[in-house]
Amino acid sequence: MKSHAIRLAGPHEVCLMLGGVCRQRLNQLAAKPGFPPPLTTLEMGRIWLTSEVEAWIAAHPNPRAARNRPT
Prior knowledge:
The protein is an alpha+beta fold. The chain has one domain (about 10-60). It is about 35% helix and about 15% strand. The protein has three helices and three strands, in the order βααββα. The radius of gyration is 13 Å and the shape is globular. The relative contact order is 0.21. This is Transcriptional regulator, AlpA family. It comes from Mangrovihabitans endophyticus.
């Protein structure tokens, strides 16, 4: 019988998944439309489904990129 465990990620894990971004960058990304909403918010912070964050990353391969970089 195959187990289907739900994989969860807190802010630290999501920052690592995004390539080591800081928490401030995670907050910026999480505030944008299209970023997966947290599954829930606990006292320690937000919790996301890992699969949803992975899908978002696949569609947005460079989350570190700033939109308004000086030229």
